[in-house]
């Protein structure tokens, strides 16, 4: 990162404006769990074709991997690549989420897809590339990696909603005994707690493959229902939005009210949303965490099973 941007972020931090980092739905372990669960449910035909595509077109070894090199198989390792690629190609940043306002009611999620794209549109676009047998192998492998990641993103409630607060990044929270403070961005914040702290607290130290096995057993009876109707990106986006309304924002002792729908680039926008939320003294303790954990586990499992469904269907015509 070059000095001018660093200096700008530091200056804004002192003013309370905060350069909020890009959201990373589910964090490393969460995305890897989604991929591990999906891989368990791939057909032999699909698994063979997809692993061959990834192996023959490996990730650029020069790309800085935020989650590190941990010897994962190519399918699971691909689950976090899109966050790394975003650093190299910022144009892909809007593809990770869809900002449906907290106050919005059911309708076409596509109406909330911004000019730079959104997660539902990105999944559809990348699926078209993956299925194009005339496209270069490297481009199809990249499309597969995007799909693996974006299906996970779509199922994170704070990637399917916003309250003029950058998907909860501008909502400081006290997480058990950890008080919020400003460090370029507010930490802990609502988005990161849902991305990382809650999923990893449920893993109890398990690796993603082991946690995928746990979710597999816990939710096996729901798999058929979750796959009904095939790929329904709009409906899955609204599921995330509704979980955000009911739990992410709604499970506090005093639920967070809907903000006016305005453009927010920093936590100083929307009448200094970050400071206003900080002064609400929001606390995430056992009751909130337990309610959120139930949603998180279900959404991780839904993402894995639906990802497998999408890729199994794509493989039927050959990949």
Architecture overview:
It is built from 13 helices and four strands. It is mainly α. Helix 2 crosses helix 7, helix 2 (27-40) packs across helix 13 (286-315) and helix 9 (208-219) crosses helix 13. The longest helix is centred in the C-terminal third of the chain and has 30 residues, at 286-315. The chain is globular and about 55 Å long.
Main β sheet profile: 2 strands, parallel
Q: Based on helices, strands and strand pairing, what is the structural class?
A: mainly alpha
Number of helices: 13
The radius of gyration is 19 Å
Strand order of the largest sheet: 1-4
Q: Output mean pLDDT.
A: 92
Beta strand count: 4
The first-to-last residue Cα distance is 38 Å
Order of secondary-structure elements: HHHHHHHEEEHHHHHEH
Index terms:
single chain; 319 residues; 52% helix; disordered N terminus
Give a quick rundown of the structure.
It contains 13 helices and four strands. It has 319 residues and is mostly helical.
Topology, pairings included?
Blueprint: H1 3-14, H2 27-40, H3 44-56, H4 74-77, H5 81-88, H6 119-130, H7 137-154, E1 174-175, E2 181-183, E3 185-187, H8 190-203, H9 208-219, H10 223-226, H11 233-248, H12 269-278, E4 283-284, H13 286-315
Parallel strand pairs: 1-4
Antiparallel strand pairs: 2-3
Helix pairs in contact: 2-7, 2-8, 2-9, 2-13, 3-7, 3-13, 6-7, 7-13, 8-13, 9-13, 11-13
